[in-house]
Design the sequence.
């Protein structure tokens, strides 16, 4: 038997979607009836990565970047056009059912629960489907009740649950058979802060307790910051970043901003900070607001230190108050979405 | 096998419960279809009344009455449509939620259809069936159906159900290519009305067309079980007809598997 080195191995995976070509207008619609022209859209383009057991990986990208498509290929729902993918040593699209036994999936925008039935019945059905033994079921339910508090609405029909309750229930349902890999596709979409926090805590606890490998797509940077040690960024079907969160912040979040409230703003007007400190203008730019007498300086944290800057300013004017801001992850990600990796540097 | 039952039985039970939740729509459905049966009943009475022959298309007037209502009973048990579920799953993208589970999509659909079948059997069909038997004995003066007849009819019905569901699954697969199959479903219903013998017994068609029908699975869906119920098939013919049904079950099962394999290769999941 082949040794499983990584929990998930994806190599050179691509997915094309073929759609009939559409023409604009009524004439176009008629023309479309007779035309057999096809348009090929590449949703995922030659992506490779591997994920180890117990990792929590944030998989992010703008809308339509190909996140869900990749997840669907890893769950065996979609067959890749090119490339291969193995999850726990199994090819998901070739042995979908076998693979399904190993994975748990939450698609935040859908539910896998039985809409018209009480939640308890959905769990009973899932217990049968995944062939969970009575003792394992009891144990897992105890755990899920503790972290997700499912008992509060366990007897209610799924359609009467609030979004937050439904999401907790869905997460519980995905975990009932204690999967090796958990795919979470926007698990916190539309949730309030408290519920979000609970969901994150639950994910963390599950990961710690069972060494479950978690792949998480989200648009909520908070999810990433709290959960993921590693992130992958994908744009237009291509992987553009893969590495640790700290590294991303270090590489791309090099800008720091210092705001100083000064006593005599007029004195600073003529100040030319970058020349004074001997750096390029791009590495240290300043903006002076005379109305509230605030000077804000944005600088490269690898080139300059805060004390250097402070002493330079304090040499000409008295500083009353000071605030230092790191570039937030959200800013970095936004930059990357807008310009690609090059633009963010 | 027992494990399979444990997995798929909840799907059937769930469908039964769901049907119970939408009672109003269901009774309306029964009413509309029963109304149709009465129309054809009066039509046939008129046809037999104005005809000089006692037997038309191999059926006497009394047998025709039984035929019309047994067609209703059979069709409502057998034709539990799953193509609607398939196209809904495709259009809304919920098919993904079925595919992440270690279950066979088609078997889960068949389980759902069988839940529906049980419900339809228990609620309108059995009552109308009993009513028809009483009418048949008291008014038409025919002999009651034998236990063996009921047994053969029910076995044939189970196969009809499988033929219909497996065919409907193949048909529903069209949704993966066209996304929306409402129009085609309408066409299918209309065509099946003819081809299954629901509107007119197959024996009324010209001989050449009947031969064509022999090569289609549809007459096996309604016509065959009703003819078995009427006792029109005996001995070798009976065996042949039931074997033909079984052959269709096997054929459509294999065809469905092949189509499903092709479809999953080019599956597109809609809605993100």
Sequence:
């Amino acid at each position: 038997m082949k040794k499983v080195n990584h929990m998930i191995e994806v190599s050179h995976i691509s997915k094309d979607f073929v759609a009939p070509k559409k023409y604009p207008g009524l004439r176009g619609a008629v023309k479309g009836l007779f035309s057999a022209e096809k348009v090929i859209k590449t949703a995922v383009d030659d992506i490779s990565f591997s994920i180890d057991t117990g990792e929590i990986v944030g998989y992010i990208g703008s809308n339509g970047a190909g996140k869900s498509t990749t997840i669907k290929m890893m769950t065996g729902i979609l067959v890749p056009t090119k490339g291969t993918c193995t999850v726990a040593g199994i090819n998901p699209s070739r042995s979908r059912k076998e693979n399904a036994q190993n994975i748990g999936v939450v698609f935040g925008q859908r539910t896998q629960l039985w809409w018209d039935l009480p939640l308890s019945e959905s769990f009973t059905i899932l217990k049968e489907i995944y062939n969970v033994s009575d003792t394992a079921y009891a144990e897992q339910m105890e755990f899920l009740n503790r972290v997700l508090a499912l008992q509060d609405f366990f007897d209610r029909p799924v359609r009467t649950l609030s979004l937050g309750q439904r999401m907790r229930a869905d997460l519980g349902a995905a975990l009932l058979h204690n999967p090796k890999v958990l795919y979470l596709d926007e698990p916190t979409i539309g949730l309030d802060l408290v519920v979000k926090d609970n969901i994150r805590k639950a994910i963390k606890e599950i990961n710690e307790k069972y060494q479950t490998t978690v792949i998480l797509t989200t648009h909520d940077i908070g999810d990433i910051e709290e959960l993921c040690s590693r992130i992958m960024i994908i744009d237009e079907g291509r992987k553009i970043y893969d590495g640790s969160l700290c590294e991303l912040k270090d590489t791309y979040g090099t800008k720091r901003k210092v705001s100083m409230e000064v006593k005599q703003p007029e004195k600073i007007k003529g100040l030319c900070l970058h020349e004074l400190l001997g750096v390029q203008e791009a590495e240290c730019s300043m903006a002076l607001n005379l109305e509230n007498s605030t000077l804000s300086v944005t600088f490269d944290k690898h080139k300059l230190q805060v004390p250097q800057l402070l002493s330079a300013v304090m040499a000409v004017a008295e500083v009353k108050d000071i605030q230092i801001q790191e570039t937030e992850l959200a800013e970095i990600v936004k930059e990357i979405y807008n310009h690609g990796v090059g633009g963010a540097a | 096998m027992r494990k399979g039952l444990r997995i798929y039985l909840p799907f059937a039970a769930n469908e039964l419960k769901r049907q119970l939740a939408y009672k109003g729509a269901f009774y309306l459905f029964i009413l509309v279809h029963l109304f149709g049966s009465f129309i054809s009943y009066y039509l046939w009475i008129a046809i037999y009344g104005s005809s000089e022959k006692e037997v038309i298309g191999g059926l006497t007037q009394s047998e025709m009455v039984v035929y019309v209502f047994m067609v209703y009973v059979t069709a409502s048990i057998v034709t539990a449509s799953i193509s609607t579920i398939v196209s809904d799953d495709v259009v809304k993208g919920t098919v993904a939620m079925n595919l992440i589970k270690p279950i066979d999509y088609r078997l889960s659909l068949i389980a759902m259809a069988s839940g529906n079948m049980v419900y339809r059997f228990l609620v309108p069909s059995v009552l109308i069936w009993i009513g028809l038997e009483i009418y048949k004995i008291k008014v038409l003066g025919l002999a009651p159906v034998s236990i063996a007849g009921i047994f053969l009819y029910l076995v044939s019905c189970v196969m009809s159900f499988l033929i219909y569901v497996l065919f409907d699954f193949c048909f529903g697969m069209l949704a993966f290519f066209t996304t929306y199959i409402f129009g085609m479903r309408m066409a299918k219903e209309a065509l099946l009305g003819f081809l299954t013998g629901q509107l007119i017994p197959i024996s009324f068609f010209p001989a050449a067309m009947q031969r064509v029908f022999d090569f289609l699975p549809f007459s096996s869906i309604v016509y065959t079980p009703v003819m078995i119920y009427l006792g029109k098939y005996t001995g070798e013919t009976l065996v042949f007809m039931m074997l033909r049904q079984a052959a269709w079950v096997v054929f459509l099962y294999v065809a469905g598997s092949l189509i499903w394999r092709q479809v999953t290769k080019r599956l597109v999941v809609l809605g993100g």
Notes: The mean pLDDT of chain B is 87. Chain B is about 75% helix and 0% strand. The interface with chain A takes residues 3, 6-7, 10-11, 14, 17-18, 21, 93-94, 96-97, 99-104, 264-269, 271-272 of chain B (CB under 8 Å). Chain B has one domain: 2-265.
